[in-house]
Amino acid sequence: MNVLLVEPTYRSKFPPLGLMRISAFHKERDDAVTFVRGKVPEYRMVHWHRVYIASLFTYELPRTVDTVKYYLQTVQNPLEDVFVGGIGATLLPNYIRERVPCQVIEGPLDRPNMLGLGESPIAEYIPDYRLIDSVKWQYRPENAYFIRVSKGCIRKCKFCAVPILEPTFGYLQSVNEQLEAVRKKYGERQDIILLDNNILALPCLPQVIQDIREQGFHKGAKWNGKKRIVDFNQGIDARLITHPVADLLSSVCLSPVRLAFDYDAVEFEYRRAVHLLAEKGFIQFTTYVMFNFEDTPESFYRRLRVNLELSNELDIRVTGFPMRYVPIDDVDRHFVSVNWTWRYLRGIQCVLNATHGMVSPNPTFFEAAFGKSYEEFLEVIAMPDRYIIYRNQYASQADVWRSEYRKLSEAEKREFLEILGVLHSSRERDSDIVTNSRFSTLIDHYYPKTQKML
Ligand code: SF4
């Protein structure tokens, strides 16, 4: 059988583990397997017996559907020979079905014969780590074991897709089995990335940590002269961190500690967990900070500040990692929650572009990027994009903008920011600008008459 595996060209950090498992299965059958990212003309000329296409975020589904359409002509019967699976396909299967003839696989491939070839569950196959060598895209980290010990989560957070994708929390497979199988087939690897949603909730956590330790990932472990890393990449649940759990975690080379500070109500537990882990010697923290859900800009700024405070107080580094909320079934990223405006969200995106998505715990860097106070933060993110991104180059224009903007009352500012959101998506922008002429001096900064740019 001639098989094509496709990952659409969305920005994926980690390798496509689902496709890697499918590859392992087909290679076991002696099928010829090819892996590509996106639309590659030379593979459109080939006849494939099967094409498998991955999906990830729902807001990337339009691109996924486009990729599926591109390869339809390469198979004999798309309804039988083209398979689309993954997170996006599981959350919105009909979005795909209504647009393109193919088989949509909903949920994980954890039952026998889901591909109709009499196979055992694909989820139990060891991913084919060599598959991704054929593409130029750099998956990070390059040399790690990617494993999952559990599925699902014990909680049901409203903003999270996990309770829908994997409604039942449970144990999957031991660390030892997974690492040993990969090692036997592909050799030793440097680090471990665990993709569990809530690993601390496992009753057998002590055994899991003991296995990690005994597999060569104890505290301070090195391999090939380099420090090893254990990364619970989806974060660990601050509410489940007790003294014994912190002790367990400190026995392996966990770095960084990833926590979430998604809304104000978890502040007490979040602070408590950071204190406890700092006490056990952890220094590097990365904290997911969600915004644009039910929060406000003020809450977001304050939560970032809490990280600075903790860093300073405990002599650690808590780097913020802002995550913009997008409803789990949206097929674009346009959602603006009631307490936010399009301009503020855009402003944060501009600030984060310059900082690679991270928020430094260094007060000087933080204040230069996000402002010294909440009021200054609101001004920073209200500015035109280029004044934010090229701060030094546009410093004098930003001063002029600021003095104009400060003349507005609070109600006028709100109105002005709403107008910017409307102008951004307007098809009649020039006439809309004329309609809002009372803000014309300020609007000029966003859409200069000569350049018509933001
Ligand atoms: S704890 Fe995390 S994984 Fe679990 S439902 Fe909440 S956000 Fe999702």
In short:
The chain has 454 residues and is α/β, with parallel strands linked by helices.
Q: What is the fold named in CATH at topology level of the largest domain?
A: Transcription Regulator spoIIAA
Specify Rg, calculated over alpha carbons.
25 Å
State the domain count: 3
- Strand fraction equals 5-15%
CATH class of the largest domain: Alpha Beta
* Overall form: globular
Q: Give the N-to-C terminal Cα separation.
A: 52 Å
Structural class: alpha/beta
Which molecules other than protein and nucleic acid are bound? iron/sulfur cluster
Verbal overview:
The protein has 454 residues and is an alpha/beta fold. The protein has three domains: 2-124, Rossmann fold (3-Layer(aba) Sandwich), CATH 3.40.50; 131-388, Transcription Regulator spoIIAA; 396-446, no CATH class. It has helices at 17-28, 41-44, 61-71, 78-81, 87-91, 93-97, 162-165, 175-186, 205-217, 243-249, 267-279, 297-314, 342-354, 363-370, 374-382, 385-389, 395-405, 410-425, 429-435, 440-446, and strands at residues 2-7, 32-37, 50-55, 82-86, 103-104, 144-147, 150-151, 170-171, 191-194, 222-223, 226-227, 230-232, 257-260, 284-291, 317-324. Strands 2-1-3-4-5 form a five-stranded parallel β-sheet, sandwiched between helices. The longest helix has 18 residues, at 297-314. The radius of gyration is 25 Å and the shape is globular. Residues 153, 155-157, 160, 162-163, 197-198, 237 line the site of iron/sulfur cluster.
